[in-house]
Each structure stands twice: as C-alpha cells, then as structure tokens.
Amino acid sequence: MTTHPSIEQHPDLAEMRSRFERATSTPRGQAIETLGLLTGVYLAASPWIVGFNGLTTLAVCNLITGVAYALCMGGFGSAYERTHAMAWAACAIGAWTIVSPWVVAGNVDTTRSVVNNIIVGAVALLLGLAMAAAAMAGRRSGRTRTRTRGGPGPARE
C-alpha cells in the first residue's frame, strides 16, 4: 500500500479535480456560469433599471440577493469542486426572489416589482437547478467509472 504525504496528492482527488475541470470547460458549464453572473448583476441593479428603487426595502433586498447570487454562480467555473454545493443556495436565492415582494416589509408589491422579481427569480431558480444537475451528472459519471474500473473488461468513460 502506498502512502501519500498529503491528501492533495491522492489519486482519487486528482481524478475528481480533472473530472470537474472537464465539466466546467464544456460550453454548457460556461453558459450556466455566464448566465448566472448576468442574472445576479441584473438582480442587484434591477430596482434602478426597472424603476422601483423608491421601494427601499425591496431595492436593498434585490441588491443583496443579486450580489449573493452572482457570487454563488461565479465560482462555478473557477472552483467547481469547491462550489458545486452552492447550487442549492442559488436555487434558494431564486425562490426567495420570487416571493420577496410579498414578504419584505412595506407595501412593495407593485406591478413592476412583482413582474421583475418573478421573471428574474424563475431564471435564477432554473440556472441554479441546471448547476445542480451538472454537479449530479458529474458525480454519477464518476461513480460509474469507479465501479466498472475494478471489474472485468475495460473501464467505461
């Protein structure tokens, strides 16, 4: 049995990193990350773009959630192996964006704010689900390769 001086040099960890790198270098992974960043930036700026910045509580809520969403989705490509678990946080932010006009303090449920938040929240939720699906697909393909590698016949890629 071979021992390694640190976990960073473990063969399974190296294989996992290369698998995640392949997942994020695909056009699908890059598209999810780019659309997620754009969605987060738009969500943060939407009160001033759409014109409901006078609704202070919702404007601040959208600003904070937009920055948080952009940070969640922005780490997808650069450090996927450490941030793929944040896909569910991105989904929660998308769901929060949908319900926030009715939940935050004050009378902020105007037509502009509701339509904006429902559309942006739905896009954010769908992108978060796409990110989670990519994470699960990467895990499933890794399990398949691990199981077949030790058995008879060649390992499937």
Describe the structure in your own words.
There is one protein chain. The protein has helices spanning 11-24, 27-51, 56-78, 80-83, 87-103, 111-149. Mean pLDDT is 79; it is low at 144-151. The protein is elongated, with a radius of gyration of 20 Å. Helix 3 (56-78) packs parallel to helix 6 (111-149). With 157 residues, the protein is mainly alpha-helical. Helix content is 78%, strand content 0%. The two termini are 26 Å apart. It contains 6 helices and no strands.
What's the layout of helices and strands?
Layout: H1 11-24, H2 27-51, H3 56-78, H4 80-83, H5 87-103, H6 111-149
Helix pairs in contact: 2-3, 2-6, 3-5, 3-6, 5-6
Task: Give descriptors for this structure.
0% strand, 157 residues
How is this structure best summarized?
The protein has 157 residues and is an all-alpha fold. It has six helices and no strands.
Low-confidence stretches: 144-151
Structure summary, number of beta strands: 0
Name the helix and strand elements from N-terminus to C-terminus, one letter apiece: HHHHHH
> What gross morphology would you assign?
elongated
Number of helices: 6
Structural class: mainly alpha
- Termini Cα gap: 26 Å
Mean pLDDT across every amino acid position: 79
Oligomer: single chain
Largest sheet: none
Strand content bin:
under 5%
Q: What Rg do the Cα atoms give?
A: 20 Å
What share of the residues lie within helices?
over 70%
